[in-house]
Amino acid sequence: MLQKQVEIILMRQLASYLTLPVFVVDPEGNLLYYNASAEPLLGRQFDEAGEMPIREWSTIFAPVDERGAPLPPDALPLAIALQKRRPAYRRIRITGLDGVPRELEVVAFPLEGQGRRFLGAVAIFYSVNAR
């Protein structure tokens, strides 16, 4: 396993203590971690799903917009945060890995470390139906 930046290690540690669902990716978009709060919404424990490349996680949940139209990977908030290095928001529908459809509101933002090192991005999301 490649050595991770200390900021990513700390972000993962922080995420593990939060009750908000959190999804963390590296600069190439590879999924590094999602916390226990994200597991029920994504339909699988992170330990079972594991790390995965952007081409997999951006399609495996079959994301669609509010009208049901499929969303291309580059339209997802996390992909926008990675590519444009700015925060992004969108309401989407996914199908969890347990086969259950869910409507989510997603906010994503880039992670920048000291010396302006680009470290990846983070998405925080929650179920619209859980309000």
Automatic annotation (TrEMBL):
Q: Which domain of life is it from?
A: Bacteria
Recorded protein name is: PAS domain-containing protein
Q: Tell me the ranges covered by the PAS domain, including all copies.
A: 11-48
**What PROSITE patterns does the record tag this protein with?**
PAS
